[in-house]
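Batch 3, record 17
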Amino acid sequence: MTSVAAHAPAHGVHHGPTSFWRKYIFSTDHKIIGIQFLFVSLFFLLVGGLLAMQIRWQLGFPGKPMPGGGILPESMTAGGVILPEYYITLVTMHGTFMVFFAIMPLLVGVYANFLIPLKVGAHDMAFPRINMASFWLALTAGLIMFAGFFVPEGAARAGWTMYAPLSARPDLSGSNIGQKLWCLSIIFLGLSSILGSLNYITTVINNRAPGMTWFRMPLSVWALFITAILGLLALPVLSGAAIMLLFDQTLGTHFFDPAAGGQALLWQHLFWFFGHPEVYILILPAMGMVSDIIANGSRKPIFGYHSMVFAIVGIAFLGWMVWGHHMFMSGMNPMLGSTFMVSTMLIAVPSAIKVFNWMGTMWRGNIRFHVPMLNAIGFVGMFAIGGLSGVFMAATPVDMFIHDTYFIVAHLHYVLFGGSLFALFGAITYWYPKMFGKVMNERWGKIHFWLTMVFYNLVFFPMHIIGMGGQMRRLYDPTIYTFLKPQQPMNEFISICAFILFAVQIIFALNFLLNLKWGKKAPQNPWEDNGLEWTLPNPAPHGNWERPPNVYRGPYEFASPQVPEDYLPQTRKLPTDREPAAAGTGH
Amino acid sequence: MSWWLPRQASTFGPAIDGLFIAILIITGIAFVIVEVGLVWFAIKYRGRPGRKAFYTHGVTKAEVIWTAIPAVTVVALGLVSNHYWVEMKGRNSVPPDAMPIGVHVKQFEWSFMHPGPDGQLGTADDIKLRNQLHILLNRPVVVHLEAEDVIHSFFVPEFRVKQDAVPGMHISAWFQATDTGEYEIGCAELCGMGHYKMRARVFVHTPEAFQAWMTQQATPTEATP
Amino acid sequence: MRRLGLTIALGAALAGLVAARAPRAVQGGSTVTGRIKFTGAKPVNPKIDMSEEPECKKKYTAQPSGEAVVVNANGTLANVFVYVKSGLPAGGSYPAPATPVVIDQDGCRYHPHVLGIQVGQNLEIRNSDPVLHNIKAKPTKNRPFNISQPNAGMKTNRTFAAPEVMVPLECNVHGWMNAFLGVLPHPFFAVSGSDGSYTIKGLPAGTYTIEAWHEKYGTQTATVTVAATGSKTADFTFAPK
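Prediction for the assembled complex:
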């Protein structure tokens, strides 16, 4: 097998595309594709947020006309009042857009694409055209999903978890075309993810620069690599299930219809067999990027790098064996409740290791509180809460009470928002200079962080309390239940804080958008980081390097006694360093 | 508004709430360690110019400790939890003297079939009620759940009991009420646009009151479809 | 001048041709009327327990019963849908009236229980109860729908594009609630009321098949011939099987 180095000169002098369409729209450059994912996903994040605002309106002020509700059609509102079927659509599509079209593509579509070749020292992904296809498939999937709002009866409405038989029977859900579009969209999205994963895995295995051994890769790359494996194996299960559901809806099959020999629980097993690895897809890249940022912010090597790698692998491995904890109350064999409880309890351990190792990185550090670092520390604090609340659900007797209550909603938002989204605020700020050649405003970044942190906790922490009080999920009007009426003021409080939280995000949006054009030009290595991407100009050119650089050390050599500076880039050669052998497969 | 779990009214209450409290204490300790630790480190190790951080790649002993303690803790929690799980939901957990109740649930109502004076389900004296369940104090009850159309879930917060009802499956769940009164039953699985309206009530009677209720049901004017 | 005249003549001829082919509403002056008799033991409708819906229960002084078989005091059957099944002149069209047909949910029951509507005419569904009702329509020839009305005062409109006898309507929150809707391409239908009689007016001369439909006892037909004006009687008798 010829080494990467031998290929490099011929590939490196390849000229990039020159037409606007080939350069920015139909690009095979991983950096452009990553930026395309960024803009599209931020749009869908906004969509998900707008859907959440409507949910919170109805929950905070049940039955009151929503401001602006009058513009929505009769199928959704009556006199501005959200209808029950539209409420169910809202919760379904909020979850769907946030999971599949915001967080997942922001973490993977953006950062796997943008960072992997840069951080391992490759010119581009292993399969650039397949990479381009992956983006366009994802965009198509997003548009199909969005189209659901514009068909008769509106978008899908069986929860983002799409449980059958409700999802398979339009006569029972009241939504026909919308349900089918959901399935179709997910099939496209699955294909997009699979193609992306192929690229990420192959590039990490094959296209590392000389000296970039496995244990010199940054944790962000490790996390994205393991995530890609999860995606490759999990998304086909989801797409397969979505195909089966679409067949039940359109071709008269009965996979999930018990009246004709099918099984309702089959959907749950298929969905959650995908769904649990999916939630690790939604957190591992965030953890990886947070590791990079915390080491940088602490000016100190990551504490326990090898354990951090093994913890990522451990989380991913165990993640395949816990799906039944979403089904403790489902009626499956109770013995499975025992086995899944054990595996679920165990998965707390690698997550705990990571939290302590991040703290260990800060310990005796020399901490710079730049905006990415603030968000990364926020991630650790919020993810810890999300993880700890998970222990309650893992205990099956306790789960009997808190399953399908707001305690679960609190948990999932602590890991997805408190975790992944804070990590994304940090990551977007951190790699913005490399993407766009500008810096985001530091002061507004800090204001955004603190306001978000305060209001985010005011919104989601009380959800633990109302969940403990027994408020079930997906209730159009909790006040139907006498026992929930006393908690209604808390629902109102959460809603008001949620509206403020949403408004605060305007700061981030403006900071992001305005600085694209009017921001200060970024220095080449604004964070004084060690990664390979910071050795390139802003923005990095097509093909990244003419020749892949040589790598002499790991990515976290901060505070090294070998040099007076408090950072030591991976590619800087010291007199004591030897030239590496060709890297690539196996080293 | 209560900031805690609802009041307990069943034999499951002490175990579940006890486990909840135990987990709260354990996770609470971890919570304090992490959050206080983060803030303390942020303050104590804030950057000062001309200083370098302490150059280390980790302390293996510390890692072993903070791997072992969580591992042992969660395994212990799992074992204790499983003991109660088997008791509450195990295949053979239903007490033999449990009063059977047939629960037929559909979009968007509950139908409760009571065994009537002869104590047997499926006989002529059965009492069928819409969205109302009547049971005896201090006597185990087993609900036999049948869903007609989509997945629903039988949930009584004060009894700490929840069980999904799945079309195509006959699922049983048992519980024993320990306090008289009127409690609400909710549907705890999204079942369509009327999901939020699937409220039912369960009445826990003393033996005398239960007898009186059954007698009243037998009179023709109160018969239901 | 000659050209203008030719154009006008051609235009008039065309208009005449078009007018001759255009479908028009064929109204006549005849009436078909009758009674729906009921023979046999009067069935007992099961009582409806509204204890768990107090907002509806309080609208009744006596416990309400189901409406599957409503036998009037004079031994006739109410809620029988009677309509012209065939015999109308070919090419006739009957535009849907602009006024809607109203079905009201009041006291957790549909009012009326059986009703007729024309193709394309608006069905106005009203909720007069301060509780959630969903209205699920289960037609086979029209597009099904399932919508909710959570509050009192809500009104929703639906139309039906194809004739269908009958479209069942049901509420799933209150399982005893159902109604039946007959969708016809013409206005020649009626529902028997509390005196068991029905009247269909405005029929042109011809021989018609009249069908009477009951939700439990099925359908019966009768053939009636009417002149341009006048009245004919067609009675029906239903009995429990």
